């Protein structure tokens, strides 16, 4: 066994402004199965009192026959799924437009999202940042589009002080043994 020091390998740091190209598509790697508990908690947190989301008897009498997942939970999951690819180095969302919920989501559905870069431009007021616009769509396990939206955000450029690695320096080095 070698006596060389372990090497720190840089993990995925997300994209910076320069890394975005119009037309690029990012398939976000993590699917998310929505549970009944997720839906109940989100209903309570968001104070959504529509019984279609938490009253099984009421929902059974609806055209869907069972409780619907709160649409804003679907949107929150879709945005969250995209962070690792598009907004890991963003510092402000500027707009969320053209939001559509095109298919119902139920507990047990697994959601997957992908985004396409629609536009990018330099910031006129922040020289170390740019503005990127993406369209994201979210699919269920059967490939049905359940949600879509356009999002615009500020993102740091490479080398921006705010985009630096902020991992703390350990008091003791990490070793093999």
Automatic annotation (TrEMBL):
GO molecular function, one term: lyase activity
CDD domains to which the protein is assigned, alphabetical: FkbR2 (cd03451)
Protein name as it appears in the record: Dehydratase
Classification of source organism: Bacteria, Bacillati, Actinomycetota, Actinomycetes, Pseudonocardiales
